[in-house]
Amino acid sequence: MDYLETVRLASKGDAGAFSQLIHERKEDIYRIAYSYVKNREDALDIVSETVYKAFISVRKLKSPEYFNTWLTRILINCAIDHLKKNRRTVSLEISAAEMDGVDRTELMDLYSAIDNLEEKQKSVVILKYLNDLTISEVSEILQVPLGTVKTILHKALRELRLELKEEER
Amino acid sequence: MKDRIDEMKKSYREVEVTLDLDRVIENAVLRGRKRLNRNVIQIRAAAAAVTVLVLLTAGINLSPAFADTAGSIPVLSSLVRILQFEKGKAAGGEITDGKQIGPVDWQQSGGSENILIPIYEEGAPSNTAAYFEVTYRQYPYSLTVELNGVRSLFAGEELPSFEDSTLVGAMYRIVTLDDSAQRFVITFKEPVEIEVKEMSGPAGILIEAKASIAENLPPVYSVRTASYDYGEHPGVLEGMLLAALDYKVDTVRMLRDSAGRHFAEAGYFLTESEAAAFREQILASGEVDFNLYIEQRGPGDTPDTINE
User: Fold this and answer.
1) What is the pLDDT of residues A112-160, one digit of tens each?
2) Could you report the predicted ipTM of this complex, rounded to two decimals?
3) Residues 9-28 (B) with a CB less than 8 A from some CB of A
4) pTM
5) Model confidence pLDDT, tens digit, residues B152-163
6) Which of A11, A99, B23, B55 has the highest CB neighbour count under 10 A?
7) Within an 8 Å CB–CB cutoff, is residue B239 touching chain A?
8) CATH 2.60.40.3500 in chain B, residue ranges
9) At B210, is the secondary structure helix, strand, or coil?
10) What class, spelled out in words, does domain B24-53+218-308 have in CATH?
């Protein structure tokens, strides 16, 4: 069965088809969630909420070709909601293996700087740089014009540079 | 800056995907399924006061005394609960997955007839029942059984023929576009009182039916699709009807007709004009690209075959 047919079945209430679609993207979903909260438990909470919300609303998805975009949008909204509800210092749970060969201090500084970005900027940076999405894909997911994404990205990078330079001083 | 982002990307790609991820995803899907089921029940209750749809469920027996007359299937299981019907619907079992349906058994005992649907797991009787819902309706007298987290019939496609049954007309599968659920319809030849029991150790669903007092119900006008052979197509039409009604009614059901073909019914009404208005509402939704028909039917009538 092809991808679009699977999405169509899922949108008609086929839980098996829906699960298949989620499982095909589960690692991406988890990593995006993780990039917002940087710890396993919170990332799993976001994944759970995302899958739940997607399941109960998949019937409203009108265009099967936008399933991934739609799912990522739900994921980002869940991640932002999670951060708002749990306003606290995000614990950095990066394992030694994950940071093997990487300057830990520099990496922590960058994570911290991204955390300090405002929501839209953070989402653009995470999607563009960590998930290798194009500006156009980011625009579709965040439902903002292409030019706006470029502006947000430009400002985000400027703020990151400023913050990282300050930390270096 | 670019170097740092590249380092972060590398670190991010190496984030270990936890083994708990599959469990979390499956639980979230199950939570969603439960929520949708609850929505339907709540919406139905709210809509009952204002809807013109006919939902007559007089055949449900709520009397605990009914249990004393239970029949002769040698059930070694323990009784978990006697399901309480509300507006023709009841639910039991536990949310789970990977169960199977064992060989369905049927026996007559005095005036009652008993159908046992055993629940299996990995080829052997399961200790607990999968989550299931039963819905009793008329036009025709029927009980729809939906089992969730059940992916196959252990005993193949064989169901009892009910050739010698006084009360049961047929038991048949209806198509379900969800490979983790199975649905059946049991039709009755006359009005029945029904009691459903959830059993455990080994698990099963025990349906006990006995003849009820004949009801003098008027005919209704059913809004339905044409008839099709068993397969995905009538299931797709059912989904489109649900979408057309924005999932706000639970009158949509699947049935088999007098020729053994399947169709989806959107709902039924006491008057033809109400049925026609409902039909127009669905067609105007833009969600359906097929024709709908209005069929007059008595409370115990088997639906007719309608060709496209």
Assistant:
1) 888 888 888 999 998 988 888 889 889 888 888 888 999 999 999 888 8
2) 0.82
3) 9-18, 20-22, 24-28
4) 0.53
5) 776 565 788 898
6) A11
7) yes
8) 64-211
9) strand
10) alpha beta
